[in-house]
Amino acid sequence: MALVTGLGVAGCGASGYAGEGGSSAAGSSVAEGFKIGLLLPESTTPRYEKIDGPMVTQSVARLCPKCQVLYDNSDQDAALQRQQFDAMVADGVKVIILDPVDAGAIAPSVSAARHQGVRIVAYDRLVRGPIDAYVSFDNIQVGKMQGQALLDALNAGGDPKRGPIVMINGSPLDPNASDFKKGVHAVLDGQVVIGKEYDSPNWSPEKAGTAAAEAFTALGAAEVIGVYSANDSMAGSIARAMRNAKMTKGTPLTGQDAELSAIRRILLGTQTMTIYKPISPQAGYAAQMAVDLGSGKKVTGGGSGSGTVDNGTSSSIPARIIQPVVVTKDNIKDTVVKDGFWKVREICAASVRAACKAAGLS
């Protein structure tokens, strides 16, 4: 993904995203409302069902009270997502907010829908084909942040090449996973010894845990000095594999998504860090883009992170790119708690109450 900054106009909507231009023949009135589709890729990662879906729906309701959001989740099934997409087009949606399971597999449906006048907002993952807008995070930066956090933790224990690390990347079908991998390798290559590296199909926590266990056996669990996990769901299974292999508590382990279980592991010292991606602005931008497109307005940028991206079909897709945040034990209170992503009472269950108190979360 290439981001070209500098595309901006004065003024922002309620979500901080601006739209301009008059009504088009395909546009509908916000006052009358119209249908907006929302397709999310999976439910294994808790954020999609618990956070992204409700936040996008609520943001649309604020911007267009009479608009109807049609929602579906494909549970990592690319063929099912195409069926869901095509069904939404047949049901008369004006816009689809799409987070693809497989960015390439969905492209023919995207092209067909676009010919019928349906507008497409790529959400979180860049979609191939003739899309109208994109909102996500700086995914290469996510990988760099993960890699730097792991390298810092390894350096704190001595020579970062004193033993091998294990890398468990995300799904090879997810373009974001490729960006995370690029980012982490940009930091770690030449600085550490990568003993084993795997891609986890469909971001499967179970397969990630199995791959980690196999790596620990092959390399020697006592020799492994750190583990890169591309997200928190996989980190949970990897942490269990580390415990089963009797690896030293505190052996560096990365993550992403700021899942509740990951925040607790960080407090307990069984995970080193996670990446917090503020979903509220992402959902707000996506909703504003969808409402603007559905009402015949041209989507444009405004403010930090505005620009364009190239998805191989077009080199000038309007985009908003949001900066991720590293979360460690030292800044939980000032990040996920301060933003209301998690409440202290949600984090501080009985099993982590002492660790919460030690971290100032009480």
Describe the protein in words.
The protein is of the alpha/beta class and 362 residues long. The protein folds into 2 domains: 3-137 and 279-322, Response regulator (Rossmann fold, 3-Layer(aba) Sandwich); 139-276 and 326-358, Rossmann fold (3-Layer(aba) Sandwich), CATH 3.40.50.2300. Helices cover 39% and strands 18% of the residues. It contains 12 helices and 15 strands. α1 (46-63) crosses α9 (279-294), α4 packs parallel to α5 and α6 runs parallel beside α7.
Integer average pLDDT = 90
List low-confidence stretches. Answer: 1-25
Shape: globular
Instruction: Tell me the count of domains.
Output: 2
Largest sheet: 8 strands, mixed
Q: Strand content of the residues, in percent? A: 15-25%
User: Please, how many helices?
Assistant: 12
The strand order across the widest sheet is 1-13-14-7-6-5-3-4
Query: Tell me, what is the CATH class of the largest domain?
Result: Alpha Beta
| Ends distance | 42 Å
Count the E strands: 15
CATH topological fold name of the largest domain: Rossmann fold
Strand and helix order: EEEHEHEHEEHEHEHEHHEHEEEEHHH
Structural class: alpha/beta
